């Protein structure tokens, strides 16, 4: 009988309005808000992965399921903004933690 191995880990979350990230698809991002620049600096020092969750712009509601993105390219601009390219990771499902 085959057993499945499910790795569970915490990821920083990046909510984006009307964005759904699919596995294997690119997602270019321009990181300009200070709080997200700090978050990206931490991500780049670690394993370069973070969660992407869609936000409904009409209600502000954050989706309960999202995807994992991996930073594959990063350009730091002179004013500390970042231009990054991410790729959606296969077989990843994000669920907000209950804590």
UniProtKB/TrEMBL annotation:
Every Lon N-terminal domain range: 11-99
Pfam families the UniProt entry points to: LON_substr_bdg
Signal peptide: none
Superkingdom assignment: Bacteria
Name under which the protein is recorded: Similar to Nter part of tr|A3IYF2|A3IYF2_9CHRO Peptidase S16
Species: Microcystis aeruginosa (strain PCC 7806)
């Amino acid at each position: 009988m085959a057993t499945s191995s499910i790795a569970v880990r915490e990821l920083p979350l990046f909510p984006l309005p009307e964005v759904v990230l699919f596995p294997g698809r690119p997602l270019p991002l321009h990181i300009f808000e200070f709080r997200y620049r700090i978050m990206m600096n931490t991500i780049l020092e670690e394993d370069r992965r973070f969660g992407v969750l869609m936000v409904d712009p009409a209600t502000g509601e954050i989706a309960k399921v999202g995807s994992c993105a991996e930073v594959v390219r990063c350009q730091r601009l002179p004013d500390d903004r970042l231009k990054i390219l991410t790729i959606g990771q296969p077989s990843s499902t994000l669920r907000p933690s209950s804590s």
